[in-house]
Fold this protein.
Amino acid sequence: MSATTAVHEVRPRPKREPADRGRLPRSTRIVITVGLVIFLIYSVGPVWWLIVNATKNSRDLILSNGLWFSNVNLFDNLAQIFSYQDGIFIRWIANSLLYAGVGAGAGTLIALMAGYGLARFRFRGRSVGIALVVGSFLVPYSMLTLPLYLLFSRMGLTNTVWAVLLPTFINPFSVYLAKVYIESSIPPELLEAARLDGAGEVRIFFGIVARMLPTPAATIFLLAFVASWNGFFLPITMLQDSENWTMTLGLYNWLRQSQVSTGSTFDFTSIVVTASLLSVIPLAVIMLLLQRFWRTGVSLGALK
């Protein structure tokens, strides 16, 4: 036997990597799966209940299974919703879209501009300003309702569209969120290069900064839209005329009527449930329309 053969025979074989290296243990995967299923049921359960019971009248709401269908009265409920008080529900939808859409749009622009100023400019009192912004969004919004009412009542703005719109333009949390996004995604060297080329600050913001922030802008807009759409304390404090009510305030009024009205031709209990389902649809549409911005942001982050 040659030396080459002997060396070849004693050479150790390379170790094979385990096929399941990097995989979680089976018990851990089972626990994670069970937790995700529980979370899914917890999240989808209320929506399923709303879909099922939106098809029922008040009698079936009480006597039938709350998680399954009974006699389908969806179209009757919709007819009652859109015929009550000459279709005032449509006016409430338009008001909610106005308050949430315009308020969230203007609030997003103001938040991006304020966040850009706090993130990329150095001025006296900047630290105090940041501290005030952080301290402001730690204050519960419901505590500001009464001071806002006193202020707007002295200005003669109560029971007007501006009483609900103006407070939605300013959101300290959105300002802080924009500041954090800009600090992490807008390099100062890019801004300095634009200034050296002769670009003004307004052009820099709208031509460079705003175009680089589609994902944070979509996030801020969505948070502001949902908060305004579901807002209750501010509309119920500021608005007395039903023509200016939001959908949330109108549904609350219908719910109160369902508790006190007897012998009415309208089934307030069932139409409140059905209208609540309708109020979720715009939020779902906005989420679907904006999800492309988050996909784009994730893709850009992966490329970086």
